Amino acid sequence: MNKVEIKDGVYWVGAIDWNLRDFHGYATPGGTTYNAYIVKDSKVALVDTVKAGFFDELRSRVEAITDPGDIDYVIVNHVEPDHTGSLPRVMDAAPNATMIATEKGAEELPMYYDCDGWNIRTVKTGDTISLGEKTLSFVETPMLHWPDNMVTYIPEDRLLLSNDAFGQHIAESKRYADEVPEILDEAAIYYANILMPFSPLITKTLQKIGEMGLEIDMIAPSHGMIWRDSGVSDILNAYRRWSSGESNDTAIIVYDTMWGSTEKMALAIAQGIIDAGFEVKVYHLRKSEWSTIIREILEAKIILVGSPTINNGMFPSVGGFLTYLRGLRPKGKVGFAFGSYGWAGGAVKAITGELEKTGVRVVDSISVKFVPGVDDLAACAKLAGKVVDAAEMQER
Question: Please, what is the average pLDDT of the chain?
């Protein structure tokens, strides 16, 4: 097996999951990678491992570089099983290795694995390990996105081994972001569906890295492609934008419909958004991937949600989507609820409540009984103009 050397003495030894199509809730049509890295010096470190079931692929890549029994340190940047599922087999192959984790990581590991016989050493921000000519330096990044998270930095190589930060879910034979078209969009989907709730912490972490004076010319995450050269500034700047809530003049309309009435309202609202000077994207919830919608919401100013009333509440697809959205807590959005009803309403009120819990500033709502007429559709377009005005005022 060919060696994949990303820096002098630093090798990618991960695994490619070509067939992953769902990652705890969001679609991954392009698969993913579980990235791990060997740092070979006077001493040898393995930084992160791979998901259970991919150990043999990891081992074959390691054996092309060194005897697994010669591994001195196994760095656990994050305990989640997509990074540690093969850890028991790794420790069997490297019985003399010292495991390195944060204090929280050391607390979590026995909740997943039988750690008897493992030599676990804890580290905190600023701690280092010398491998010879290379140094491993550790920075705790709690709640990005678990309490145990940290990143590993090699100052001699200006290399940041960032675990889940800066990743993407994509399976590729190539290893570098600049070799893959539209990779920033993949990174945006990943950020929106996994890291968006932690945006305030990401802002603080980026500030901490800046204050520590870490010089970085390569970022090697634990999923997807490796960032190098100008790609490093591209992804760092993107994270600064996303974590700050910076947004575009765009509205996202999501809806479901029973007999087409709510859909007519959605399209009238979309035209009203266009007439008011914003861009708009419209998604039928049973015909669109939620992860794609969330990626668009990440950079939009406006969220508009519509549903017919069923059993005095909203459509199940709308309720499910709003539950998903609430957990992601998008920042700085405005919006409203809309929908049709028959003999009794309920959906619009329920949607409004959910949007408010999500943190969206709700400016109004609109309900229509049965089929919207010309005046109803005009009212929808007028309300669209109102929400655009509110979004523009919020930016000032």
Answer: 96
